[in-house]
Amino acid sequence: MNSAKEATTVVTKEQVLDALRDVEDPEVHRSIVELEMVKDITIEGSSVSVKVLLTITGCPLRTVIEKSVSDKLLELPGIEKAYVEIGTMSDEERAKFAGKLRGKSEAQSTPAILQPDAGVEFLAVASGKGGVGKSTVTANLAKALANEGLRVGVIDADIYGFSIPGIFGVKDARPTVIDELIIPIEVDNVKLISMHFFVPNNNPVVWRGPMLGKMLRNFFAEVHWGDVDVVLLDLPPGTGDIAMDVHQLLPKSKELIVTTPQANAADVAVRAGIMGLRTNHEIVGVVENMAYFQCPGCGEKTYLFGRGGGEEVANALKAPLLAEVPIASMDALASGIFAVDSPQGQAFKDLAKRIIPALGLAVRV
Ligand SMILES: Nc1ncnc2c1ncn2[C@@H]1O[C@H](COP(=O)(O)OP(=O)(O)O)[C@@H](O)[C@H]1O
Ligand SMILES: [Mg+2]
Questions:
Q1: Which protein residues touch ligand 1 with a CB less than 6 Å away?
Q2: pLDDT per position as a tens digit, 136-154
Q3: Which ligand is nearest to the CA of 167?
Q4: Residue 185, strand partner residues
Q5: Rounded-to-integer distance, Cα 104 and Cα 355, Å
Q6: Per-chain residues with Cβ under 5 A from ion ligand 2
Q7: Which residues are annotated as a binding site?
Q8: What are the pLDDT digits (tens) for 24-75?
Q9: Where are the domains positioned within the chain?
Q10: What architecture (CATH level 2) is domain 112-358?
């Protein structure tokens, strides 16, 4: 004699879908139910089987999805066995999927992330010259902001001199592209996009101005940023086409200036001049990088590169000096991202705490 449990199904298809609503695609961070990735639900007695369609075959995240789906199904009352089959979308299904991700923006010429109601703050990190640690500051500040609970994106706008993927240790990563929609590379809750990901074998980028501007625009329009609170842009040094493009694309962007301690009046003037070109960009502050070396044993500070550069630039730009980042030893620099408990990591934590209110953001809990 069959028990009542075996004779009738214990849950409905709707309940199965409801249970899976919380499962997100690990790459695009949207519900797999909402994205219509769940198909062929069959319930027989206490066992349930579903098919989940992924965008590409051999998707490295398939086991993650498989497990989260199976776990959720087994939480359903009366369900004892769960079977998850992983399939691949047809071209048509993939196009529909990309359409869902693009959402409203598809019909609009302004990319979703640049819509005034998107609620995303932009912070461009700039410097008068190269080698002052602009990319290092961008990357470490991004990480520190993420540590404070913000959802952070980084655009490596240094199209020729890209270095953000190297700093985050993801040089070999290649973003998933779904129907021409690019999924950013995510490292420790920071979403990254860089020209590096699109250049085979580190070939030099040889595009001219207009093409560069187009590339930069693509970083906004063709990338699925999802929900982000703040996007940092690592600008190329000095003035130039890209800086002007950023100004045009992001008239409301705020700006953080990175400098070194060498006090040099001419340099300050150059930097102030650069800012003059971007009059609308509010400068939130100045970071003095490689400010001093602190003896690990005795704590004594040595000002290897002189003093006063940060303060001088800050005064010239009428902006606050927000951080003095100490010089790191080669060991501490090995990974590009400083350890949270290192003097540099602490400086970035403090900087993040100052930047959050300056951007009008609140810490998420
Ligand atoms: N606080 C620091 N202490 C020691 N070395 C640093 C520090 N900040 C940056 N560097 C190093 O200086 C070099 C230039 O930094 P980078 O961030 O690439 O500068 P930029 O983007 O301005 O050209 C890199 O090798 C980087 O590792
Ligand atoms: Mg750089």
A1: 127, 130-136, 163, 289-290, 325, 327-328, 333, 344
A2: 999 999 999 999 999 999 9
A3: 1
A4: 192
A5: 31
A6: 134-135, 163
A7: 128-135
A8: 988 888 899 998 899 999 999 899 999 999 887 666 778 889 999 999 999 9
A9: 4-101, 112-358
A10: 3-Layer(aba) Sandwich (3.40)
